[in-house]
Amino acid sequence: MINNTLYICRRELAGYFATPLAYVFIVIFLVLAGVLTFFVGDFFERGQADLQSFFTFHPWLYLVLIPTVSMRLWAEERKSGTIELFLTLPIRQSEAVLGKFLAAWIFVGIALALTFPFWLTVLFLGNPDNGVILASYIGSWLMAGAILAIGAALSAATKNQIIAFVVTAALVFVLTAAGTQTVLGLFQGWAPESLTHAVANASLFGHFTAITRGVLDLRDLFYFVSIMAAFLAATAVLVDLTKAE
Amino acid sequence: MEMLEIRNLYKNFGPLVAVDDVSFTVSRGEVLGFLGPNGAGKSTTMKMITGFLAPTAGTAVICGADIRERPLAAKRQFGYLPEGAPAYPDMTVADFLRFVAHIRGFRGKDAQARIDGIVSLVHLDEVYQQRIETLSKGFRRRVGVAQALIHDPPVVILDEPTDGLDPNQKYEMRSILASMQAEKAIIISTHLLEEVEAVCSRAIIIARGRILADATPSELAARSRFHNAVRLDIDPANENRIRSDLAALPDIAVIETLDEGRGLLIIARDNKPIAGDIADLAEGREWHIGGFTVERGRLDDVFRAITTPHGPEPAAA
Fold first, then answer.
1. Nearest CB to A81; choose among B53, B82, B104
2. How large is the ipTM?
3. Which domain CATH number covers B278?
């Protein structure tokens, strides 16, 4: 089982790098992260040797960029007809879904890892808490995984990659915005404490900011892993439902 | 044990019945032609056999493995070329075949040996390092056949393997099939009658989701109204004389003029053998004919008769 998943993952990942897609994505990711961190994020003004300015924008960065990776995950296979080849090979559906997801997740991980110059910058400028930074990277990667899983499910749901992109971005936006003070403020006036709490807990943003404070709380890990599991299961169902269209 | 058993396959998409109670078997050494008009249900049947589509009812058993109950075991027993020969466009032929080889369970040197073998069998040597999106249709089809055969499966399922290929490429593809025939059970779908005659040992005609005929190509051809018809090359000046001579024979249904009088097509009543009598007449009455051919029968004729809406009821196989 593991073998097939890895072969599928490897095939998919090699596919990313066979076209300009991967390189363009990585460059844009890095440039955007840089612009947001140093210019919008008051990195220098804050005067602190940490990467808060960097991580704070990740949800929004992912919101825009990750759907570009996820949208083609299944929609491309159906459009080119390779899905029929793929699903008649002796592989389990779980291997197929997991293999493709892992490739996308590793790819985003690579893009994330390539932001290490930011880390070097603060190491050079001051004395950052490396534990917090490492935890933040892990949290960011998990969040990316959750967003990718949502994107994968939507990619399986529609043949049209644009729709997959837009709906994914919208859904991620809702999940992210649910944790921001702006939205929570809407609830706070009239809603019971538990509801406001529930909305905050459903939010990607909420769990992510918790992690960027350096605490890898089990609840946060559980949140991201549950989202991944739920949406990957949905992906499997959707692939089966829509494969022949 | 039959290599491929199709049992009462049924598929509907809402109110549309695409495949209606299809059953047949394919044995080792057989090349079965799955023949039918577009939309007949050939591809849908194949998609069910290979596990891509779930049947509404019925199943397929490949070398003893039921595709619904043991899909992985069944999928290991066949090679499948889907319609249009899809393949990953950004991969090279080498990478693609290596991927399939790995999924099929081959590793390292063994995988490479398999790849080398299939590349030389299907003549992919010159495009081995090329990306699939840069290949012509003919080569892409061959890549598709290569991935279907790389694990030397006992059952081979090909959906329109020569569609869109030029005559040379068609010939090549058919030679490949012929070379494998003895060891495997092969099923190809086609709407090319000449392909059925050239390659298949047996043909099933399917239309509107149902099997309408199941016989060898010659048996099918024999159902044609042209079976046992006689074609003569004549001198136009003799036409009337020949026609009046032929009037004496009881089993002639129709005499058609061909080529502005330079030929005659004599169609037998109920496909009776009339050639002998005509030959005797030709000699005895000195018609001085140039050519004499006995028609085996035309498949396209039979095909049309069977598959058009006012054709006969589905025949028992």
1. B82
2. 0.86
3. 3.30.70
